[in-house]
């Protein structure tokens, strides 16, 4: 049996979100995660943001991940769905800028959490598949940098 191991990659970097957001680190991060309370600069309820390397998250069983791929988790409170979509639109480019080795940012909201799924779609993530994890069924969402997302995948477009 061949086993593949990755280098011990550092936890995801802190994203630089700009002046529109306040980002407050939370101390209860686990398993190499980074956790933050994020709120709009002008005020409003925060959302909890967790960032993991996929290799340290149950999502590692769902797709052939890269060592630097980042998993995003959000906890929404009442009336934060549209704000979460705006946050994700700013977060994804900030993560790719902070970690040029990252080729994919993924999320896996629960299959029955339609509000969180809508927030990821509004944030530019693509719905990819459904998967079963130890804690329940999820919907896998992904965002990729343009250099990767724009690569042709049709056989006719491949060099011969």
Mean pLDDT: 86
CATH superfamily: Gcn5-related N-acetyltransferase (GNAT)
How many helical stretches?
3
Report on the biggest sheet. 7 strands, mixed
The helix-strand sequence is EEEEHEHEEH
Say how many strands there are. Answer: 7
Beta strand %: 25-35%
Strand order of the biggest β-sheet: 1-2-3-4-5-7-6
- Give the termini distance in whole angstroms: 33 Å
Report the helical percentage: 10-25%
Our Rg estimate from Cα atoms comes to: 16 Å
Mass-distribution shape: globular
CATH class: Alpha Beta
Provide the domain count: 1
GO molecular function: acyltransferase activity
Keywords: Acyltransferase, Transferase
Pfam families: Acetyltransf_8
Protein name: GNAT family N-acetyltransferase
Could you explain how this protein is built, in words?
This is GNAT family N-acetyltransferase. GO terms for molecular function: acyltransferase activity. It is an enzyme of class 2 (transferase). With 160 residues, the protein is α+β, with helices and mostly antiparallel strands. It has a single domain, classed as Aminopeptidase (3-Layer(aba) Sandwich), CATH 3.40.630. 19% of the residues lie in helices and 28% in strands. The chain is built from 3 helices and 7 strands. Strand 6 (126-133) and strand 7 form a beta hairpin. Helix 1 packs across helix 2 (114-122). The longest helix has 18 residues, at 81-98. The model has no long low-confidence stretch (mean pLDDT 86).
